[in-house]
Design goal:
By secondary structure, this protein is an alpha+beta fold. 21% of the residues lie in helices and 48% in strands. It comes from Stichopus japonicus.
Length: 113
């Protein structure tokens, strides 16, 4: 299993957060999972996205799994593999002090006709 780590700055709800992402890949089975640490430089929250979570999300939005994994990897690590995708982020506060991180692909104006 190969692991890569990345640190990126994201803006959500008008605030700056830092996202530390560990991506684990098992090439032979095309299994990917993410370990996340989100911080506002004062507090930190951690969570994970398993391969089965990715499969369930992919099925819910009717997206090709490999494409969804690549876009999720790009959104969570802010690496651009030539796709020029732009992502929007939202961080929601939950009652128990936890945070929920959401991301979505954003259409750029020049792509809208």
């Amino acid at each position: 299993m190969g692991k890569t780590k990345s640190l990126s700055s994201i803006t959500a709800n008008g605030e700056t957060f830092f996202l530390f992402t560990t991506t684990a890949v098992e090439e032979e089975d095309n299994v990917v999972s993410f370990e996340l640490v989100l911080t506002d430089a004062i507090n930190a929250w951690s969570g994970s996205i398993s391969n089965s979570d990715l499969q369930a999300l992919c099925k819910e939005i009717k997206e090709d799994l490999s494409k969804f994994i690549e876009e999720s990897k790009e959104a969570l690590t802010q690496t651009d593999d030539g796709s020029n995708l732009v992502f929007g982020y939202q961080v929601k506060s939950l009652r128990d002090g936890c945070k929920e991180l959401a991301w979505k692909r954003v259409m750029q104006d020049e792509n809208i006709k």
